[in-house]
Amino acid sequence: MNIYSVYEKYHKDFLTFAKSIVRDYNDAFDLVQDAYVSALEREEIFEYMNEYQIKGWFFTAIKNKNIDNFRKQNRLDYKWEVDMFTGANNFEEKIVVQDLLEKLPKKLKDVVVLRYEMNLNSTEIGNKLNLSPSTVRSQLSSALKILKDYL
């Protein structure tokens, strides 16, 4: 059996699996399509696989595509965070950033300032504020979520 027939036979199963991961039909459809494109790009690896091995490969590829998408989104979020605090080049942008920071509770504002203006890592911030590094990361995440909501 080849990848085309496995894809045709199990397409609905792949879609159901992808939807169970991402909870959105369109995102699930995209994951399945991305996995299929990957399969087509490496068609030779399926030459000696049986139907169930190919099916398993598809499930793994769908899961890995989702992980890749998640990591990519996290990199974009991180870039947004860094740009927000370090990319304020003119006076107006700096005022906007300061105004946003003022909307945060003091403990969250302190964590954000230490992270992005002082370039400290979570351990260093924790030492300064008497918090564990995981608490610092949690507070930083909460602060950034609040800031994104204001934007």
Radius of gyration: 22 Å
**N- to C-terminal distance:** 52 Å
Q: What is the overall number of helices?
A: 7
Number of strands: 0
Strand content: under 5%
List the domain count as a whole number: 2
Mean pLDDT score: 83
User: In terms of per-residue confidence, which ranges show pLDDT below 50 for 5 or more consecutive residues?
Assistant: none
**What letter string, H or E per element, gives the SSE order?**
HHHHHHH
Helix/strand class: mainly alpha
Shape verdict: elongated
Residues in helix, %: over 70%
Biggest sheet details: none
Which labels suit this protein?
single chain, 151 residues, mainly alpha, Arc Repressor Mutant, subunit A, 2 domains, 7 helices, elongated
Structure description:
It is a single chain. With 151 residues, the chain is mostly helical. The protein has 2 domains: 3-77; 87-150, Arc Repressor Mutant, subunit A (Orthogonal Bundle), CATH 1.10.10.10. The protein has 7 helices and no strands. The chain has helices spanning 3-22, 25-41, 51-86, 91-102, 106-117, 122-129, 133-150. Helix 5 (106-117) crosses helix 7. The N and C termini lie far apart (52 Å). The mean pLDDT is 83.
